[in-house]
Amino acid sequence: MDVIHSLLGSKKAVTAIAAILFTIANSLGITAVSEESLTMILGICGTFIMGQGLADLGKEKAKVESSK
């Protein structure tokens, strides 16, 4: 249960899960989004995940440097 709680606390994981669910919903016809719009949405999600990863790296670097 702790794994699920920590996973849902991660902005990157929540964004990835939302992107996957949106893609599945679109392929099943639940949403009426064009392929071009879907590509844009997934691109934004991917960019957010990469940016958040870089921010997390910066936080860890600051922790390491402050502990020295």
Please describe what this structure looks like.
The chain is an all-alpha fold and 68 residues long. It has one domain. Helices cover 84% and strands 0% of the residues. It is built from 3 helices and no strands. The protein has helices spanning 2-8, 11-27, 35-67. The N and C termini lie far apart (35 Å). The model has no long low-confidence stretch (mean pLDDT 89).
Tag the structure with descriptive keywords.
3 helices, single chain, 68 residues, mainly alpha, 0% strand
In short:
The protein has 68 residues and is mainly alpha-helical. The protein has helices at residues 2-8, 11-27, 35-67. Helix content is 84%, strand content 0%.
Beta strand %: under 5%
Distance between the termini: 35 Å
Q: What is the typical, i.e. mean, pLDDT?
A: 89
Give a quick account of the main beta sheet: strands, pairing sense, barrel closure.
none
Unreliable segments of 5+ consecutive residues: none
Structural class: mainly alpha
Q: Topology of this protein?
A:
Elements: H1 2-8, H2 11-27, H3 35-67
